[in-house]
Write a structure and sequence with these properties.
It is found in: Cell envelope. It is a single chain. With 375 residues, the protein is α+β, with helices and mostly antiparallel strands. It folds into three domains: 29-43 and 303-374, conserved putative lor/sdh protein from methanococcus maripaludis s2 fold, CATH 2.40.420.20; 48-56 and 211-301, Efflux pump adaptor protein, beta barrel domain (Elongation Factor Tu (Ef-tu), domain 3); 67-181. Helix content is 29%, strand content 35%. The chain has helices at 2-26, 93-121, 123-134, 136-176; strands at 32-36, 39-55, 58-61, 69-73, 80-81, 86-91, 179-181, 186-191, 206-209, 214-221, 233-237, 245-253, 274-281, 293-309, 314-316, 319-326, 329-334, 336-340, 344-349, 357-358, 372-374. The strands form five sheets. Strands 2-10-13-12-11-14 form a six-stranded antiparallel β-barrel. A four-stranded antiparallel beta sheet has the order 3-9-8-5, with no helix packed on it.
């Protein structure tokens, strides 16, 4: 009998232990979550697009056979120039010949005019001498005819000189064009001295950039172009220089889309419409160089909104979801999101001000689990 009682006691103890283990299996240790409610924070709408760092102003001077041969390049790489600085001087044998012919023609015109004026000045004396020979009336008539003829020649000579002077002005203008000057204050970026010998093969003889005045250029989609306005702030970063962050602002948005032909690509009627955008770089210390590829982030709007930490969002079946605590259990709610900041994101639909939000749910948190909120 005693053995039976001992066996029954052991069976009871074992059953109790099994029950406890089963209970623990279905009721794990207390799951503590950090919770909070919707908070007002400043959020911003942004647009990201690739861009290229460029000079605000650029001037490319190519060899121009119509002007003649490049006689001299007057600058070197790195030189600082101001608007009007002489950069390249051409030499044109044909234009020099025309200038010399024009100079001689002007001298000839002047001599001819002087000759006619001298002839006119002697007519009165000539008339007196002629009057002694043929009489005063006939002398006056002959001299008057000669005077009219000389005055006509003088008028024609003066007209011819005016035409020659116009030619001189045209030649002088062409001669002045043989010297190419800088269009703005800047710096010499590159010089190709092979252009002097005519072997530049399509590269510019001189490239001038606007020094520290830099811009970024990119292209906006048709949709994004409706949200971007001049003056909106811009942040710039580079994969090549991860520690660099530049600031700027939108300066211009093109009103005409970039065509495929303009971009150097074949036309595609199904291609997305792109609009050119340019932003001025306002940062003073710029480690990137013109030509660098950058990521341009344009802030299109900024406002105060009801937000949650970015860490509270979970993606489930392509839906944005947030866990809240109701009656001691985790409840999943599908939400709609809006603008974001670095740490926060706007919730536009799906939560109320009273909801107790799980701020940083673990991967093992499931809907329906019993949780303890730790505010």
């Amino acid at each position: 009998m005693k053995k039976i009682l001992i066996s029954l006691g052991l069976a009871a103890i074992i059953g109790t232990l099994i029950g406890i283990n089963v209970y623990k299996a279905y009721n794990p240790d207390e799951y503590i979550v950090q919770t909070g409610t919707l908070q007002e924070n400043e959020v911003a709408g942004t647009i990201l697009l690739p861009a290229t760092l460029s000079f605000a102003q650029e001037q490319f001077i190519f060899a121009n056979p119509e002007k003649g041969r490049i006689a001299e390049i007057l600058v070197s790489v790195g030189d600082t120039v101001t608007a009007g600085t002489e950069i390249v001087r051409y030499e044109s044998e044909q234009l020099n010949l025309e200038a010399e012919q024009n100079r001689l023609a002007l001298q000839s015109n002047d001599l001819r005019i002087q000759q006619i004026q001298n002839q006119l000045s002697t007519l009165d004396d000539k008339e007196d001498d002629l009057a002694l020979q043929v009489g005063g009336s006939q002398a006056e008539e002959q001299i008057e005819a000669e005077r009219n003829s000389l005055e006509l020649e003088l008028n024609l000579a003066e007209i011819e000189r005016e035409q020659t002077e116009l030619q001189r002005q045209t030649i002088d203008r062409h001669l002045s064009e043989l010297v190419v000057t800088s269009e703005f204050d800047g710096q010499i970026v590159s010089v190709d001295r092979t252009a002097v010998s005519g072997n530049s093969q399509g590269t510019p003889a001189v490239h001038i950039g606007s020094g520290n005045q830099l811009v970024v250029k990119g292209q906006l989609s048709e949709y994004d172009s409706t949200k971007v306005l001049p003056g909106q702030p811009v942040s710039l970063r580079s994969d090549a220089l991860p520690d660099m962050k530049l600031e700027g602002s939108v300066s211009t948005i093109g009103i005409i889309p970039v065509s495929a032909e303009t971009a150097g690509m074949p036309a595609d009627p199904n291609a997305a419409v792109q609009y050119p955008i340019e932003a001025a770089v306002t940062s003073e210390e710029i480690t990137a160089k013109p030509g660098f590829r950058l990521i341009m982030e344009i802030e299109t709007e900024r406002r105060t909104a009801q937000t949650v930490p970015q860490s509270a969002i979970r993606k489930v079946d392509s839906k944005d979801m947030i866990y809240i605590v109701e009656e001691g259990k985790a409840v999943a709610k599908v939400v709609e999101l809006g603008l974001s900041a670095e740490e926060y994101i706007e919730v536009t639909k799906g939560l109320t001000a009273e909801d107790l939000i799980v701020l940083n749910p673990g991967d093992d948190l499931k809907a329906g689990m019993e949780v303890t909120a730790n505010d």
